[in-house]
């Protein structure tokens, strides 16, 4: 038996740092990753798809987002089982019970809206642990495991949330207890645990049967999400009483959120950064966060600004992270001697240079004025 394990689609997600038209393209890419599951299922012969929580970004979605999401699910073709998670819990305002969702939900899509066992076919069951609020008062999975025994039925647990071994706060009531999962696996009551909440692909514990699939499309930078953009193809050998499991990742995501940390202390460093940014492929689907440190002359800082302006127009987003960046701008000796100006204007430039070298409140304004002067004189072209 083969199926697709995925989670954390978070359809309707927005990212504040995306450039104007990049947000609609990013939203479309998240839906495209869902529709891509149809090809994955066909290529691998998957029997069904389980989505382990956070199908939607939240319960209050625009009607267009709901309709387009359901249409993407329709194209998958095989049965799709949706688990409400912490972003879209099955509460009074749930998107899953909205008139629009109910009216347009495709025949191949089912919501795992009750805790406990759901039969897929004779001999195969899903054990669902849906969230019914954003703040569960207990482990959302442990309760559905109670009473299950190794009776020859193949079972797949579908759960959502943080596992206790990854979280410092062990007293959080909503944590999933790994010991309970492994005990159910050990007694043969369940054979695979499909988890959602972590946006990176990750095995949990040592059984090889408990996994986070991660989000099928990236949601955060690569120093936070180590391995997003996958779904998992899960094989369970039902002919073997031990029900051995094989898990294979399949890449479906196309976007990247990249963090680049660079020291910039010279025009050579600025030129190297320009080359690195130029070499990044798929700029329309790439978000770049820069952490820049160093000390530059006004001329080199102007060249850096020109470089960043250029790539901000090419990437889906490019931003300098203020909290991780620190660039000192100090006018070099003789840096403004060849501007071809004299008299009052030259005296004004000398005064700006002196101010820019100070530590006073006006230093930043003076540096900005000098940088503008250089750019207007074509000295800041990267």
TrEMBL record:
Entry-linked Pfam families: Metallophos
Q: Which UniProt keywords apply?
A: Exonuclease, Hydrolase, Nuclease
Q: Which domain of life is it from?
A: Bacteria
According to the entry, every stretch annotated as the Calcineurin-like phosphoesterase domain falls at 1-169
- This protein's species is Mycobacterium lehmannii
**GO terms of molecular function:** exonuclease activity
Q: Which family does it belong to?
A: Belongs to the SbcD family.
User: What Gene3D superfamilies would the database entry show?
Assistant: 3.60.21.10
Name by which UniProt lists this protein = Nuclease SbcCD subunit D
């Amino acid at each position: 038996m083969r199926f697709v394990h995925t989670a954390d689609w978070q359809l309707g997600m927005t990212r504040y740092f995306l450039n104007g038209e990049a947000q609609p393209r990013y939203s479309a890419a998240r839906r495209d990753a869902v529709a891509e599951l149809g090809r994955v299922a066909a290529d691998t012969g998957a029997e069904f798809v389980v989505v382990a929580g956070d199908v939607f970004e939240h319960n209050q979605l625009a009607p267009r987002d709901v309709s387009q999401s359901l249409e993407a699910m329709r194209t998958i073709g095989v049965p799709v089982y949706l688990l409400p998670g912490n972003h879209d819990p099955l509460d009074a305002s749930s998107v899953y019970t909205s008139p629009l969702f109910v009216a347009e939900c495709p025949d191949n899509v089912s919501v795992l809206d009750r805790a406990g066992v759901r039969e897929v076919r004779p001999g195969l069951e899903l054990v669902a642990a849906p969230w019914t609020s954003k703040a569960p008062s207990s482990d959302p999975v442990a309760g559905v495991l109670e009473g299950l025994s190794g009776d020859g039925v193949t079972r797949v647990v579908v759960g959502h949330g943080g596992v206790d071994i990854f979280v410092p706060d062990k007293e959080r009531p909503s944590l999933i207890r790994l010991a309970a999962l492994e005990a159910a696996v050990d007694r043969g009551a369940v054979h695979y645990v499909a988890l959602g909440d972590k946006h990176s692909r990750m095995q949990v514990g040592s059984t090889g049967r408990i996994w986070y699939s991660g989000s099928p499309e990236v949601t955060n930078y690569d120093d936070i999400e180590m391995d997003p953009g996958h779904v998992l193809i899960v094989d369970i050998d039902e002919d073997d009483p031990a029900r051995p499991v094989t898990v294979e990742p399949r890449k479906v995501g196309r976007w990247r959120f990249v963090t680049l940390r660079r020291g910039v202390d010279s025009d050579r460093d600025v030129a190297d950064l320009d080359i690195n940014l130029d070499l990044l492929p798929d700029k329309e689907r790439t978000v770049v966060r820069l952490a820049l440190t160093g000390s530059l002359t006004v001329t080199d800082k102007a060249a850096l600004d020109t470089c960043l302006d250029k790539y901000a127009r090419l990437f889906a987003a490019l931003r300098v992270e203020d909290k991780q960046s620190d660039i000192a701008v100090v006018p070099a000796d003789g840096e403004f001697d060849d501007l071809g100006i004299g008299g009052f204007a030259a005296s004004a430039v000398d005064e700006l240079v002196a101010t820019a070298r100070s530590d006073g409140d006006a230093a930043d304004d003076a540096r900005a004025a000098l940088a503008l002067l250089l750019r207007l004189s074509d000295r800041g072209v990267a």
